[in-house]
Write a structure and sequence with these properties.
heterodimer, A: about 190 residues, B: about 200 residues, mainly alpha
Chain lengths: ~190, ~200
C-alpha cells in the first residue's frame, strides 16, 4: 500500500507542469479516490502546505506520507514526487538545455497551460462543494444553498479582498481565517450561551 | 570576477549548493515563484556562479518541465555546477527542511485534529483555501489562458474535470495533444518560429 502511495506521488510529479498549485487537482483526486484522505483533510493539507516553508509538493507529499505511514511514508512519497523531476530535468540538462525553444514543446505547453488553470478552477468547485455546501457530490450543490453559513460567506469575501486587492500575503490570510474560526465557533458560543 | 569561478573547488561548490538550497528550503514560503528571486540573489549576485540572464533561462526551463519549479531549478543549477552529485545535493538541501517540518506538523495534525479549537480554526481556514485557489486561477489564468484556443481548451477541460469521471491525467494529456494538433494543423502560419509581423 505504501508503494501505491509512492506511485501516486510519482504520477503527480510526472503529470504536473507549472509547480505547486498545478498539483492540487491531481493530489486531491489521488488522495480521495484511493481513500487516503477525505476532501476536508485535503483542504487542510493545502492550507498547511501553503503555510510551511519549502516547495509545496514536497510539503504535501511529506504530510500525506507521514499521516498514513509514518516517517518511512513521508520519505518515500517525497522521493516519489521528486523522482520524475530528477529523471526528466537531468536528461534535459544533459542533452538539450535549450529545448524550450522547440516547436513541439511550445505547442504542447500551449495546450497544457490552459488545461492546468481549468483543473485548478475545478478544484475550486470541489473544495467549495465540501466546505461551503457540505455535500460530497457535486450534483447536490444546487439543492444545498441552504447549507451555506453566513460566516463562510464573510470569510470568503474578506479573504478574496485581502488577497486580490490588498495583496496581503497568503499566510497572513490563512492565519486570520483560522483566528476568525476560533472566535466565531469556539469563543463566541462560550461567552454567549 | 569571472576568473574567480575557475578557482572555486568542486567541494566548495557542492557545499554552496547544499547550503543555499537548505537556507531557501527552510525560509522561503510559497514555492517556485517566491523562491526564484532568492535563487538569483544567491547564485548570481552573491556567489557569481551564473549571470542574471543564465538564471532566467534556468527558470524558463524549470517551469516548462514536469514537477516542482523550485526542485527543477535546483537540479539544473546543481547539474551545471557539479553534474549529477550537484543536482542531488541541491535537491536534498531543498527537500530536507520540508521533510522535517512537515513530518512534525503531520504528527501533531493527526493528534490535534479532534481538538475543539483546532476544529474551529480549520473551519475558517478551509474557506480561506477557496480564496487562495481562486487567486491562483486568476493569476495563472492571466499568463496561461490566451486567445480563443486557450479559452476553448480551458473551458472544455473545466467541464470534463467537474462533470465527468475522467482521470485528470487524461485531461492533461488531452490538453497537450490539443496544443500540438492546433499548432501543427490549424495554426501553421502563426506559430512559425521568428514570426516577424504580418503573415497574412
Amino acid at each position: 500500500m505504501l508503494f501505491r502511495m509512492m506511485w501516486a506521488f510519482f504520477k503527480i510529479g510526472l503529470f504536473t507542469i507549472g509547480g505547486g498549485y498545478a498539483m492540487i487537482p491531481l493530489i486531491s483526486e489521488e488522495m480521495i479516490s484511493n481513500g487516503w484522505m477525505t476532501s476536508s483533510e485535503v483542504t487542510d493539507l493545502i492550507a498547511i502546505a501553503k503555510m510551511t516553508p519549502g516547495p509545496f509538493a514536497v510539503n504535501t507529499a511529506t504530510f500525506a506520507g507521514m499521516k498514513l505511514y509514518g516517517f518511512a511514508g513521508a520519505l518515500l512519497c517525497t522521493l516519489g514526487v521528486i523522482l520524475p523531476s530528477l529523471l526528466i530535468t537531468l536528461i534535459v540538462a544533459k542533452f538539450f538545455f535549450d529545448f524550450q525553444d522547440g516547436k513541439i514543446v511550445k505547442s504542447l505547453l500551449s495546450g497544457i497551460r490552459p488545461t492546468v488553470v481549468a483543473l485548478i478552477a475545478g478544484a475550486v468547485v470541489s473544495v467549495s462543494a465540501i466546505t461551503l455546501f457540505h455535500v460530497e457530490r457535486l450534483e447536490l450543490i444546487l439543492r444545498s444553498f441552504g447549507n451555506i453559513e453566513a460566516f463562510s460567506i464573510v470569510i470568503l469575501a474578506l479573504s478574496l479582498v485581502l488577497l486580490l486587492w490588498k495583496k496581503v500575503h497568503p499566510i497572513l490570510v490563512i492565519a486570520l481565517a483560522g483566528i476568525s474560526g476560533i472566535v466565531f465557533y469556539s469563543l463566541i458560543p462560550a461567552f454567549i450561551p | 570576477m569571472e576568473h574567480d569561478r575557475e578557482f572555486i573547488s568542486y567541494r566548495q561548490k557542492l557545499k554552496d549548493l547544499f547550503l543555499i538550497s537548505l537556507k531557501l528550503g527552510a525560509f522561503t514560503f510559497g514555492g517556485g515563484y517566491a523562491m526564484f528571486p532568492l535563487l538569483v540573489r544567491e547564485y548570481a549576485q552573491n556567489k557569481k556562479y551564473f549571470s542574471d540572464e543564465e538564471m532566467l533561462d534556468i527558470l524558463a526551463v524549470a517551469q516548462s518541465l514536469p514537477g516542482m519549479i523550485a526542485i527543477n531549478a535546483c537540479i539544473l543549477i546543481g547539474y551545471r555546477l557539479c553534474s549529477l552529485p550537484g543536482a542531488l545535493v541541491a535537491v536534498l538541501g531543498m527537500a530536507l527542511p520540508s521533510l522535517i517540518v512537515m513530518s512534525v506538523i503531520s504528527f501533531f495534525y493527526v493528534r490535534f485534529s479532534t481538538n475543539e479549537y483546532v476544529i474551529s480554526a480549520l473551519k475558517g481556514i478551509r474557506v480561506a483555501v477557496i480564496a487562495l485557489l481562486i487567486q491562483a486561477v486568476i493569476k495563472l489564468g492571466k499568463q496561461g489562458v490566451k486567445g480563443a484556443f486557450g479559452w476553448i481548451v480551458a473551458v472544455s477541460a473545466f467541464l470534463f474535470s467537474v462533470f465527468s469521471g475522467v482521470h485528470l491525467i487524461f485531461i492533461i494529456i488531452a490538453g497537450g495533444l490539443a496544443g500540438i494538433l492546433y499548432s501543427y494543423l490549424i495554426n501553421k502560419e502563426n506559430t512559425a518560429p521568428d514570426n516577424s509581423g504580418e503573415t497574412k
